[in-house]
Each structure stands twice: as structure tokens, then as C-alpha cells.
Design brief:
eight-stranded antiparallel sheet, three-stranded antiparallel sheet, alpha+beta
């Protein structure tokens, strides 16, 4: 995957294959990447840090390691997109959907984002209905937030695909995921990965027919876990 001048580590290359390429964007904080299109900001000549952000004075309920100031994202017309979290800490700007290959996902896009040979069969069997993605980053690209929201035809399908996402992390010696507790969301699983480029924490959970995957890259483990927890609780409350 092109990286606009950055070099992927072995851990980053390995991570490209799991969680719908979610962590391909999340592990390696200096990579401005499309989660599936293979283009970076450097490739397309767009400055993703200049995406407009609407500020709000309402603080998020966050751990002390997370800034209280927030930036709000205007929800799109898409019904599923309207369910996604809209507030992130000040300093994060939403990456344009055309640059980040985010926005709405149909089955074909979900298959591409999954990246595994059996993706079509697995997603079809799980009853995939539709999805939506959103991506934010800091100006210096040391911080990233990626949110995936998938809708399935029933809760069993959502749970099955969540399990697949987590299984794809097992046995990954290159990045060695470490599990952490997630409070306030039944059945949620949190894992942290790190290499020389940064720390990435992600949380996977389901709510009824919905599957949520949230990843946060930061330079500090406490900050990445705290923000992932904060955003997950916010997202859970919106479903």
C-alpha cells in the first residue's frame, strides 16, 4: 500500500490482513492511508488536515488523559451514518470520504475491506446489510481515529462477524495484541498493539444487529486506550 513516503514495518504489513484493514490504517501513525483504496494523502495531493471541523463547547466525559475540548462532525444524510459518533477531541479533523475511502459501505466494499479470500461467503452468511466508516486524524498525523459501523440482518450475524474480526488478531507475533478491559459495554473486547511508530488501541463490540470497530492511534498507551473507551461508550449509547 502506498504510504506517501513512509515505510511500513513488518508489523504494519502483517496487520493489513485483519479487521477489515482497520488496523492497516491504525498501526503506523505516520501513514495517511485509505483503508482499502491504497491511496495516501501524498498520492492524491490532498491535505487531509484541512478538513473543516465544527467546534462545540460540550465536553466529552473522558479519562484525565484525554483532552476535554471536542470537535463535532456533522452527521450525513445516510441513516447508518447518522448513528456514528460525531464528537472527537479537539485537534482531530475528519478526513474527507474520497481521500479516506470512508463513508457508506455496500457488500462489495465490505468484501474489499475484509480482504480475506472467503470474505464474500462470510459476510453473506452473516447477513451483512450495510456499513459506514469515518476517519479522523491530527495535523501531525500522530493521532488517528477510525470507526466502522456494520449492520447485519440479526444479532447472531453481527456477533459472528465480530468473532471473526477478533480471531484474525490471534497468533500475530509481529504486533502481539494485548487485551484490555472495556467498561460499560457488555461483551466488548479491547486490544492494544504497539511498535516503534506508535500505540494503537481498538475495541470491538455488538449492539443488537450492529457491529462496531473503533481504533485509536496515539503516542501513549493510556491515551489511546482512554480515547477508544470514551468513543466506544459514546457510540454504544447511540445504537
Amino acid at each position: 500500500m502506498p504510504t506517501g513516503g513512509a515505510h511500513l514495518t513488518q508489523g504494519e504489513i502483517t496487520v493489513h490482513r485483519w479487521i477489515g484493514r482497520l488496523m492497516a490504517c491504525a498501526v503506523g501513525a505516520l501513514v495517511i492511508a485509505s483503508c482499502s483504496s491504497g491511496e495516501s494523502a501524498g498520492d492524491v495531493g490532498v491535505d487531509a488536515t484541512n478538513v473543516p471541523v465544527v467546534e462545540t463547547s460540550v465536553p466529552l466525559e473522558t479519562p484525565s488523559t484525554v483532552p476535554e475540548e471536542t470537535a463535532a462532525t456533522v452527521a450525513p444524510d445516510d441513516p447508518l451514518g447518522q448513528l456514528l459518533v460525531t464528537s472527537v477531541p479537539e485537534g482531530f479533523a475528519q478526513v474527507d470520504d474520497e481521500l479516506g475511502d470512508t463513508g457508506p459501505s455496500d457488500l462489495a466494499k465490505a468484501i474489499r475491506d475484509d480482504g480475506e479470500p472467503d470474505a464474500e461467503q462470510v459476510l453473506t452468511d452473516a447477513g451483512f446489510v450495510r456499513g459506514y466508516q469515518r476517519f479522523w486524524e491530527t495535523e501531525d498525523q500522530s493521532g488517528l481515529i477510525i470507526v466502522f459501523l456494520y449492520e447485519f440482518s440479526d444479532p447472531d450475524g453481527a456477533a459472528a462477524y465480530a468473532e471473526r474480526a477478533l480471531q484474525l488478531t490471534e497468533g500475530n507475533a509481529a504486533v502481539a495484541p494485548v487485551e484490555f478491559d472495556v467498561e460499560g459495554i457488555p461483551g466488548a473486547v479491547g486490544r492494544t498493539l504497539s511498535d516503534e511508530t506508535g500505540v494503537s488501541s481498538f475495541i470491538v463490540f455488538t449492539s443488537s444487529n450492529y457491529l462496531v470497530q473503533i481504533a485509536v492511534v496515539d503516542t501513549e498507551e493510556a491515551a489511546s486506550q482512554g480515547l477508544a473507551q470514551q468513543l466506544s461508550v459514546d457510540q454504544f449509547a447511540r445504537l
